[in-house]
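Whether sequence alone determines local backbone shape is best considered at the level of individual chains. In the encoding step, the backbone of a single protein was reduced to a row of integers, each denoting a local shape. For completeness, the protein is quoted in full, as a sequence line and a line of structure tokens.
***
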Amino acid sequence: MLKIKPNCEHCDADLAPDSPDARICSFECTFCASCVDNVLNNVCPNCGGGLLPRPIRPREKLDLRPASIERMHKPVDMLAHAKLLARYRDIDPVER
């Protein structure tokens, strides 16, 4: 089950459980759409995978399975990320 993390790991922007701007990779690393588009170039800095819109849990289910309140703020090391970008930027996420 998704944790539904409350913030962007890079810029620490708040991401409500119903935010259409939340993006996740297959390991549930969580970033805002702005960071994915303008900083990460759709390459997860932790695993190299692509980032997709996070599913939105129905409100009635949030009562039983609430979103996480644990924040993860780990700004991206841009030098290390440049290496990932050089490797993955031009490869479609399904081909990585």
